[in-house]
User: Fold these one by one.
Assistant:
Number 1:
Amino acid sequence: MRIASFNINGIKARLPRLKEWLVETRPAVACLQEIKTQDEGFPEAEFTDIGYHAIWHGQKSFNGVAILTDGEAAQDPSKGLPGDPDDEQARFIECTFRGVRVINLYLPNGNPQPGPKFDYKLAWMKRLRARLLDLRDREIPAVVVGDFNVIPEDRDVWSVNAMANDALMQPESRAAYSRILNDGWTDALGTLNPRGGVWTYWDYQAGAWQRDHGFRIDHMLLSPDCADRLIAAGVDKQHRGRERASDHAPVWVEIRD
């Protein structure tokens, strides 16, 4: 079963590219971030036409997440990260598909740091860890994917100096991510590419794509059960180079059914 993640950076602006990718790669589950549309504006019919069911959690102009499932509807969907009833940002959605709990997230960027946005990022990561610990303690097979907005290690960025002051690679961000991994989650892409140099994001500015100045912030974490079933993981890098593409490339993981 292939589970994929794609920060689409505006689902309406990228719809042709998104459908193109879905048809070409046909993931069983496609998790989308930054759909940037309210719930009523989500283009559900576009995905129904190519055989996908959809659940989504939208927000006007910002954020927003969705999960597409191939051929059959997801079970037990849930929207919003537990732990803060006042948090209205649409960044978290989960469901069960073929016996696996799929968690899709768009973690806060945190810039500028220091400041309230960075504080929100760290608090959000603490809440995420609590949710994932609950899944772990109940031994639920799970795959956690999305735009984590964390560059885990120096090997995951084209230039450490260029990103040194960014919230994505501050020691606090990295430590919060490491604590999640240390709870028993496997970073599929990182595990299969121990030398690093695998990027998932290239900025639109300064010719970053053309110069391959990227970094890895889109991750796929596997529970112990799913890690034992890991077959492969990768990045559909070529889709970043297409016309009117997102600034992220899709990432994917394959596990045995």
Note: The mean pLDDT is 97.
Number 2:
Amino acid sequence: MSTFGTVRSLDGTRIAYERFGSGPAVVLVCGAMDDGTENAPLGLELASRFTVYNYARRGRGDSGDVAPYAVRREIEDLAAVIDEAGGSTHVFGACSGGALALEAAAAGVAMNRLVVYDLPYDMGADAEVQHRRYIQRVRALLDEGRRGEAFELSMRTWGSPEESVRRARKHAKWSHLISLAHTLPYDAACMGTTNQPPAERFSRIGVPTLVLNGSASQDHPTMSELRPNFFGEAADAVVACVPSAQRGVVAEGPHVIDAEKLKGPIGDFLLDESPARTTM
């Protein structure tokens, strides 16, 4: 059985969450173009060992929003959910939600342990130029009300070939995805100004952290044009600058959350004080 609730962030924004399970608390942070739906199956799997708080980030689902956007406000949102869960909980973040969780840890938000999965930092030489160009273009499209084109741009940026973009337009979830398009700049902002891990800032993270990527994350056609080992390179770069970080690879793990494959590595790390295994 689950219960639904809301908290008020520091700026007054209403943040909606679903709570289920029993045990130590863990807060789930969703990635781009998601309102917590993709994390929900993972939360259900973790519920036998944890009290799970799966929240909708600002501007998504039943959560509110306040302009202008700032990453600081999203950090305050996460802190408010953690406070609601009793303070200093575990945290799991997927994709850009993992980058947000790392920023929160670097800002001093109280956490016990942190797990991040498939961080989308770009370790390519032209990452900063491409990131700035993407932000400018997606904002311009959204300002003109061209939400569908903004999402198509994001798909191409994330490695989708044209055939995948065409199929996405016909998918049953297309209208739902378009309803979240205004949050695309939010996720871009969470990746920083360079779309690479901020080494100096992340060096302040003292939370025991497990950095995971899926070995099959780029097998799906929608990511076929990403550079080989894109997520692995990003994970390695984060581990190199977070003093408390440990590294893991989820065997056959896809980019979209696979609850069965992730529940073990996440649960074991959050509950076991011994060092995490190097591969999973």
Note: The CA atoms of residues 236 and 247 lie 8 Å apart.
Number 3:
Amino acid sequence: MKCSILSAFFFCCASSFAQQKSIPLSTSLTNSKLFEKAFNNDTIQLLDFKSGGNTGGLFVLYQKSDTLNFKNAFYSNHPDRENYILQGLAYYEKKPGAWRLKFANDYALFCASCNNMHGYDMNVHKDTVQLSITWGPNSFSSTETYWFNWRPALKRWQLSRTKANGSDDAGEERRIYQEFNSNSNVFLDNYVAETLLSEQPSGTTAGALSLYYKPGNYKGLLDSLYRVPQSSFPMLPFVFSTTDATYFNNEPITGKQVQSANDVGYFLEQANSLAVAEIILKQVIEAFPKREVAYYNLGDVYLKQGNKALAAVNYNIYINLMTERKLQSKIPKKVQDFVNANRGLLSN
């Protein structure tokens, strides 16, 4: 359930003064209880905070009440109290003697009750702030992740990437990834989390890729991958990651699936999504240890990764299996030449 316009109006107008303007520099950043004591007041409460990054500032996630304060009985016993709590992000600059408030974005997270919002995470690394929000009922959940990069010329964090992972009650997984160019007018201090993925200005997207599939359906996944344009191959790890590959199938690959599963691994290797291809091909080999072509494809993965030893090992297994079946004539010369030239690696 989204907050009403009236509720948002009260938040914006009545609680804008509630944000702490400064926090003593002496406040411990290693003791969350002490920091909470310095930060909290009647209308704003600490959720999380992170220091670090190239700017040396302090990022704070908070929750904010409306015209009432958190001491009011409304917030302890009213069933709709979460409809009147916003969750936002503030940034404090390090100044002599204090952390000084640079900005406070009351809409950086979903409100406490919006769309069954039930999880969030914040990471700060060098010049990037990453925020993830998980929302929705168990039968239709979604995790949205946003990356904001520091732009020194603008002195602001500009939206650079977004990703949405979700599933529906029919079991279909959806992965949507977007990259943004310098025309984007979306920044850490002004974006609205509830509309960020659905209301992007035209002309700001530098690239986008979507992938839809049902876990365990290798043929369906392969069909989806075939629709990915070659120009979008570098984005594949963002819509089908190593985690997605690891948990794609909870059961061993069957004889009916093995051809499509192997083809998925081959496609990903050809698209240079090597870490993901490695996982799929290992799953094929685990279920079908005599499947020659899987070792060939896995050898190609390791060769592209620069691991000659593992490439030689897998190529050699491929050659031996092909020889067992008297299919030596079908072994590519380049594979035989590579193994002959690297036999010293096999003994290691």
Note: Confidence is low (pLDDT under 50) at residues 1-16.
